[in-house]
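User: Could you check the structure of this?
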Amino acid sequence: AQLVYAIFALVISIPGLWALRAAPYVRTSKKSAETMLRFASIKPGDKVYDLGCGDGTLVWMAAALCGIATGYELSLPTYLIAKTRSLFKPRTTILFRNFWKQNYMDADVVFCSLLPHSMQQFAQQIWPQLKPGCRVVSNAFSAKGLTAEAEDNGVFLYIKV
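Assistant: Sure, the predicted structure tokens are below.
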């Protein structure tokens, strides 16, 4: 069963990985997702973005906390899975778009699970457009040049000043 899941995960992540060169699809563990949500401190009405949302799990979890959550995914198979699963989830939007080309000036929370080189690009390209108080929660990799406010279970919290 694990081999079948590994092959499935590889097949659905390759298109997005090639297009974005950001990270392959790897489902976020329950422990990491719980830490990410705790760090995000989502309040009702918060605008939440998930960069490379994969199957959309964090998008739905954020919306369940009354956030308005948008996930960007560029791997067509993964996007279709997330989009289909989100059809009946309120306050969620799953978009087939390149997250590098979006505007995040209204973001209250940004989730990302990007590889180290992509986290560096995030710090240079997306971080400057975030408003003060925006919480960035990164799973697995830190962002060089940014100081994490907290770290737990391999999850990093950054707060824009």
